[in-house]
Amino acid sequence: MILKKSLSKFLILFSYLNLLIIFDGNISLRYLYDDIARLIVLGQDFFITPLLIVLLVSFISSSADFYLLSRISFDNKLLISYAYNLTVTAFSTLFIFYFLRIYDVSRFLLLIFLITCPVLLVSTKYINFENIKYSYIIPVLLVGIISNFYINSNSSINKALKVDTNIVENIIDEDIEAVEVNILQKYLDFEPTPDINEGVVKKINLSPIYSLKKFQICCFEYSFYENGGKSVGYLEVVENKLIYITGSGILLSTDTKNILDSTNIKFQHIKNNLKEKIKNSYVFDPNGWESIKDLLIHDNEIYVSYVEEVSNDCVNIAILRSPLNFEELEFETFYQIDECVIRSVSPFNAHQSGGKLAVFSKNEILLTTGDFRAYDKAQDLNSNFGKILKINTNSGDYEIVSLGHRNPQGIVVLTDQNFALASDHGPKGGDEINLIDLNNLKNYGWPIASYGTHYDGGYREEAPLHKSHKDKGFEEPIWYFDYEQSNLHGISDVANNFFFEGDNFFVATLKGNSVYQVNVDVNNKKVNSIDAMKIGERIREIEYDPFLNVYYFILEESPSIGILELNNS
């Protein structure tokens, strides 16, 4: 009878807590994902759902109930029964939420749940469990699990994603006038998540030196995890303008003159022909990994890199270019080659694409390319994949600067222009910082050499991942993030740290939720010092504003634009 009663309570908790999660719609599981990923192997396209939380809380609470009822006799009075169920439910729920570091559930909804759910649980004392057969409970349990899984899969998260598809159609439409908007709100068909106070500035003191202001980007549905893993966006600064492009090709701008004193950032939509020029429809799909990869303004022209579909089911990195005009941009193809990687051929991975742009000289820019997990490409000098390329902006001619890269998501040229600092997003424990010799072609080892391991823990003959680069004739990274010391990091962008003299840099991380201050000894090809600043979110992009002497961050989970400044500025 006690088991039947506990199973009934499990069903009640399962259903009721599931409703809490659905109504909230703002739960973030980034910490849970990271923590579990440190213990077991998770595929890169695996996403933990709130259903797991519901199951854990319900199971622990009903198990605790079964244990207590089988050993302790309680007074049958309503108040005592309510207090007992409240204690067990509250302890189980709060313990799980705290243990798994789930902090962003609505306090109001959680309080309602904790007060009202015990009322339903008390009702079980009026059920005659002796007349209920186990054969009836099991089907009910299965129906409850299936139905609640269906509800979760069709919750507000997926509804928001379906709405986003319409957003793309509306925003990219060239008939839309460039009107002033509070980030994206006037283009949206849905309201922002209620828990988000849009436009409010949150100031965080990161250290005695730095502080960070966060401006909320409307809406939560544009965050990385809610948007199927698509990049939230990229930034560029030109004079008093901040240019922002989302991963799905929405182009906006805002004045930066009063941004430090503002409590709100207002953007204007920039009309453009990206939708007409980009053949890859996945770029405009908010749920797809194939996306815009970077934004660069150089010599009064704007460059956009992205994952292009060259032929049916076959993709590579391409670049569009347009004269800079804040009223309307007319893009034309600047860089595109016929070589491509087939999506349907395993182990294709669209995230592993590179696509970072940087200015090298008056007439040259740099482009990083990933291997899309086509392992044979990075070591092939006849392939442009897994490389850093130097492209002439006048002729379009290019040359390979370096090879043996997996997914270089950040690159910045040093002040003497002889070297560049590049991040390479590696496999598990294989994130690298490389010093790129821009005058001599060097090989950085991927996929023959890497200090990481494959995410599934297996061995691949085509990608053996030998730990020593030097022993195999490759360039050693000047730094790598050992998994045992730093867990999963996923380094992204790199930027010069102009706050201080010398070869100082910022290196952003995704899963690491941190920005590193890195001092480099160029002559000896080593890192002198590296210090972490915890931001608490994925950092996709770092962009320096020389006019205001601040750095802008794209923070992917709020999502927000962060402004990093010196505390004494």
Strand order of the largest sheet: 1-7-6-5-4
CATH homology group of the domain at 358-534: TolB, C-terminal domain
Largest sheet: 5 strands, antiparallel
CATH architecture group name of the domain at 358-534: 6 Propeller
| Number of extended strands | 30
Instruction: Tell me the overall shape.
Output: globular
Mean pLDDT: 80
Distance between the ends: 69 Å
Estimate the strand proportion. 25-35%
Characterization of the model:
The chain contains nine helices and 30 strands. With 569 residues, the chain is an alpha+beta fold. Among the domains are: 2-154, no CATH class; 358-534, Neuraminidase (6 Propeller). The strands form seven sheets. It has a five-stranded antiparallel β-sheet, with no helix packed on it. It has a five-stranded antiparallel β-sheet with strand order 2-3-30-29-28, with no helix packed on it. Strands 9, 10, 11, 13 and 14 form a five-stranded antiparallel β-sheet that branches. Helix 1 (2-24) packs parallel to helix 6. The N and C termini lie far apart (69 Å).
Offer a concise description of the structure.
With 569 residues, the protein is α+β, with helices and mostly antiparallel strands. The chain is 24% helix and 29% strand.
Write the layout of secondary structure elements.
Blueprint: H1 2-24, H2 30-39, H3 50-69, H4 78-99, H5 107-122, H6 134-153, H7 156-171, E1 180-181, E2 201-205, E3 210-216, E4 234-238, E5 241-245, E6 251-255, E7 267-269, E8 271-272, H8 274-277, E9 292-298, E10 301-311, E11 314-323, E12 328-329, E13 332-335, E14 341-342, E15 354-361, E16 364-369, E17 387-392, E18 398-403, E19 410-413, E20 419-424, E21 431-437, E22 442-443, E23 479-481, H9 483-486, E24 491-496, E25 504-509, E26 514-521, E27 526-534, E28 539-545, E29 550-555, E30 560-566
Parallel strand pairs: 8-12, 18-22
Antiparallel strand pairs: 1-7, 2-3, 3-30, 4-5, 5-6, 6-7, 9-10, 10-11, 11-13, 11-14, 15-16, 16-17, 17-18, 19-20, 20-21, 21-23, 24-25, 25-26, 26-27, 28-29, 29-30
Helix pairs in contact: 1-3, 1-5, 1-6, 3-4, 4-5
